[in-house]
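Practice problem: predict the structure.
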Amino acid sequence: MLINLLISFLFFFFTLFNWYIHLGSQNLGIKSVEKKLSNALSNGPFLYEVFTFTVGVLISIIFISLIANVVSGNLRKISKDRLSILFCLILTWLFLPTAILSLSSYLYPDLFFSHTNLANKILLTIVILFFSILLLSSFFISKNIKMTLFIFLILLIPKFNSFNVTSVQLTDKPNIFIIGIDSLNQDEINEKQTPFLQGFLDESKYLPNTYTHVARTFPSWVSILTGDYPLTNKARLNLTNFNQIDLTKTLPYYLKNAGYINYYIQDERRFNNIDERFFFDKIIGPPATAAEFILSKFVDLPLLALTSRLNFFNYFMPHLQNNRAVWVTYDPKRFNKKIDLGLQSSKKPIFAASHFTLPHWPYKTNNKANHLKGSYQKYLESIRMVDGQVSKYISNLKNKGLLENALIFIVSDHGESFSRDIDTPSHDEYSEIINLTGHGTSIVSGSQYKTLFSFKYLKNNNLYDLGTVDTNLNYALSDITPTIIDILKLDVEKEFDGKSIFKVKNQRVIPLESSLQPMFNSKGTVDVNGTIEQNANLFEIDALGKVIIKKSLYQKAVNSKQRGIIFDKWQLSIYPEHANQIYITDLENNILYKDIDFPNVRLKEELLDKLCSLYLDEVIVAQIKPCSNLSYVYNQSIKAL
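Answer:
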């Protein structure tokens, strides 16, 4: 046994060493991680998570050595000791690494060690048969039976909650499902490409003029769950410290007090670390921790890629499977099964907020053919996949009986721009400074800031009309919580920035903000290493092992934001990086003007006044110069002094 254990360790460290020296610390992001997570080595939760992962690695190595020990022993027993111990050992360790590399190459063609020749089905069949026969032979030759039973227990152990007993709900309150889709460009929803979404829109209330306040996932979801603008709820950037947010003024808090069981579901939580602190009873998804940034990179090691698939190892290495950030192993069907097992039927009403991130950059999936396509084609493929994933999720909810009485929202957190002409309003010049790729990079881009907002109410399995909504008006993600509270008639004594959509009768001011700006390379695509390096000093680890923006740098990042407002068919935007240039968008005709070229001076002044009033408290600190000369801003600054 000891010799097999030694060889197993040597095999693992051989792959680890080769992987590290070929990729290098820069590609692994280690240098930037050292800066970003400078307090990691003194952080208890971070160290515990690394320790647990290391235990999982050690058990994986021991597990493989057990297989080798049983197989080599049985091989010698079957040969009636005609084969030497050394020969059986050599034969076993010729086949075992081949089996590991072949199976990992077949399941995950994008791993560092994966190769098409190793993924050969004939080779895979041979090595699997070899080990299956020799493992099963234990029961016929009465050798290594206990060890073999242990191996099969690890291989076949089910999830502890795999037997889901359906409960009959004893409540007249509807279940509530908010289903979010990441980076969904509204123009890509159609019957051919997204048949499920299009069908849902056709039979639901759909508000085509809906916007996010900040085109990033965390600020968008906090606006959804609080009913407030980021300016109010203080979640203005990804990885905002939760201490800045009043978590008792959130939809999950109100629903929990009303008797609901709350779930939060997301397949990539790296930059949206919403958790139980938001009064969710259960989180389904990968860890939202600092350690995940580092540990998820070890998925490239074939041994860990395989053992992490096994339910036994999920406790030790949850970072490597069902994690969209680790796209090389992510399978939307498997994540749906994880949701199906984790979201239990209950006698109490259920609130489940879920977010599916397949359409998020880099748009890659575990499919080498996908990588030959351009970014936009990969994006379209990911949208088709997420359409099927959401469809299956809805189907599973229906099978559980959770949609008999249910309020279902399907929304997006933000859109996505590919720097095409259609991604920004028409204009005569300055495209290079406003037409940026991604989301949260340019507030004049409708492709980034327009969001999906659709919902329907099922009562006794039938569509129920809640009332009329003026679809010509503008709406925002912050309207979702007030709408749900209005429908449920909950007694909540709070004035929200958002408003129940059934009570919106006139156009309102809707604020927009940019986020941290990524770096781009000469091809116009995101420079990942450059962006991480640029923002590395912004982050630290909090007491819970989460990555957060440093308090000392938070306001500086907020000050650099583009700010804008939408009112009626107009948008006014201020870009500090363009010397506080003002842009005005005619949303109805999709035309962009510089303020000096805008023909209606009075309207420009009215729009600027609305923006400056909204951001009055930070005009001075953020140096919003177009507002600084207004009389009431001057008086406010004098009072502050």
